[in-house]
């Protein structure tokens, strides 16, 4: 028996070596779980907070008929999409003028993009603040940006296409960002729509929408 290895004597050394390693693994797991729980409690929210004015994005039907008539005459809804995102609810609506080709007038397109941003889970960043930040982040990546004071201090307009035949206006109402673009349809006959005319039409449509929502 004296020649056999003393397994019991060796075991404590293995336990002593494994103890710190196991503790490190447990600590790493604990830190990871804590990080996940913190992110879940303070990250983007899947639904509006109680102080968010807009609990969801408006519908395409919330755009007044008078706005469509003024911008397009007879209008047809070409596209309507909406979806709940991690930190917001959005809807995109597109209308085109009807019968313009028969009248010899180039067709026109009006697109309205609604996005309601929500207060984060921790309640530290209100939806209105998140919307203001998101709107401000749009400005540096646009061309020909100009202020639109009639729609608020942070409202802006810009050229949505290089040639300027489409203008876009973006404004904020509490936690809701509204982007309105107006322009000529691709491949339209006749002279292209000038930027100033497109901007005027986009601003007028935006004012009508702002008053209705």
Please give a structural write-up.
The protein is 37% helix and 26% strand. With 213 residues, the protein is an alpha+beta fold. A seven-stranded antiparallel beta sheet has the order 1-2-3-7-6-5-4. A hairpin with a 3-residue loop joins strand 1 (75-84) and strand 2 (88-97). Helix 2 runs antiparallel to helix 5 (195-212). It is globular, with a radius of gyration of 28 Å.
Shape: globular
Give the beta-strand count.
7
The major β-sheet equals: 7 strands, antiparallel
Number of helices: 5
The proportion of strand residues reads 25-35%
Low-confidence stretches: 1-42
Mean pLDDT over the residues: 80
Q: Compute the CA-based radius of gyration.
A: 28 Å
Strand neighbour order, sheet with most strands: 1-2-3-7-6-5-4
Helix content: 25-40%
Q: How far apart are the termini?
A: 91 Å
Structural class: alpha+beta
H and E string: HHEEHEHEEEEH
Comma- or semicolon-separated keywords:
213 residues, alpha+beta, disordered N terminus
Summarize the structure in short.
This protein has helices at residues 7-42, 65-72, 100-103, 127-138, 195-212; strands at residues 75-84, 88-97, 108-117, 143-147, 156-159, 166-173, 176-184. With 213 residues, the chain is of the alpha+beta class.
Spell out the blueprint of helices and strands.
Layout: H1 7-42, H2 65-72, E1 75-84, E2 88-97, H3 100-103, E3 108-117, H4 127-138, E4 143-147, E5 156-159, E6 166-173, E7 176-184, H5 195-212
Antiparallel strand pairs: 1-2, 2-3, 3-7, 4-5, 5-6, 6-7
């Amino acid at each position: 028996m004296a020649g056999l290895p003393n397994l019991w004597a060796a075991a404590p050394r293995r336990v002593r070596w494994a103890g710190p390693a196991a503790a490190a693994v447990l600590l790493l797991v604990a830190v990871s779980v804590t990080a996940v729980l913190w992110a879940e409690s303070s990250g983007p929210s899947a639904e509006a907070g109680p102080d968010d004015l807009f609990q969801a994005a408006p519908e395409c039907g919330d755009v007044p008929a008078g706005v469509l008539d003024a911008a397009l005459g007879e209008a047809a809804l070409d596209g309507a999409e909406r979806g709940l995102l991690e930190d917001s609810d959005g809807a995109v609506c597109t209308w085109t003028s009807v019968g313009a080709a028969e009248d010899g007038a180039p067709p026109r397109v009006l697109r309205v993009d609604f996005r309601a941003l929500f207060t984060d889970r921790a309640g530290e960043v209100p939806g209105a603040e998140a919307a203001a930040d998101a709107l401000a982040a749009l400005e540096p990546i646009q061309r020909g940006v100009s202020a639109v004071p009639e729609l608020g201090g942070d409202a802006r307009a810009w050229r949505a296409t290089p040639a300027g035949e489409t203008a876009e206006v973006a404004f904020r109402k509490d936690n809701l960002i509204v982007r309105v673009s107006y322009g000529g349809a691709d491949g339209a006959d006749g002279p292209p729509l000038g930027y100033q005319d497109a901007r005027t039409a986009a601003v007028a449509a935006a004012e009508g929408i702002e008053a209705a929502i």
